[in-house]
Amino acid sequence: MEEKFVDILEKDEQIIKVMKPNKKRFWKGILLWAAIPVFWPHLILFMVFTFFTLPFFLAKGYNNTYYAYTNKRLIVRSGIFGVDYRSLEYKDITSTSVNVGFLDKKTKTGTLGFVSPSVHGGRPMYFSHVENPYETMREIKEYMESLKAE
Q1: Secondary structure (DSSP) of 16-65
Q2: pLDDT tens for the chain, residues 1 to 150
């Protein structure tokens, strides 16, 4: 999976770990969202879009989604029609969070949040549907602390 990030790595940058969202949890969230339109007025049009077109785009989006942390930064790779990268350097991170919702409990997944007020307009960067979220956040934070100690 490391080859997915080769295009944007700097010369002295090394990938520590690459993660993929949990497929089961990813689709559970989509199916829950798709069940809501039963009460919408334009039901037939929405149903055609939801059950025939949307799954294709979402599957493509899932296939392009990867998360990595390197010796310098966090990176999110995503996209439906193309591949987009978003990164956040460790020195810019001011706070972190772990969110485990009710759909995450069965799949033992969660969402990791990283906040930097000065980067990306203050919007958090998320690693969504990550397996073992508490352990993964602990690993990332330990790595960040080891860099500060150097």
Answers
A1: EEEE---HHHHHHHHHHHHHGGGGSTTHHHHHHIIIIIHHHHHHHHHHT-
A2: 889 998 899 999 999 999 998 888 877 766 555 555 555 555 666 666 666 676 777 777 888 999 999 999 999 999 888 899 999 999 999 999 999 998 898 889 999 999 998 777 788 999 999 999 999 999 999 999 888 777
Q: Which amino acid is at 69?
A: Y
Please report where in the chains the tokens 């602390």 appear, as a residue: 145
Q: What residue ranges do the domains of the chain occupy?
A: 14-149
Q: In the β-sheet with 15-19, what is the strand arrangement from edge to edge?
A: 15-19, 66-70, 73-78, 84-89
- Record the pTM: 0.79
CA 48, CA 119: separation in Å to the nearest integer?
39
Tell which CATH architecture fits domain 14-149. Answer: Roll (2.30)
Q: CB–CB of 74/140 below 8 Å?
A: yes
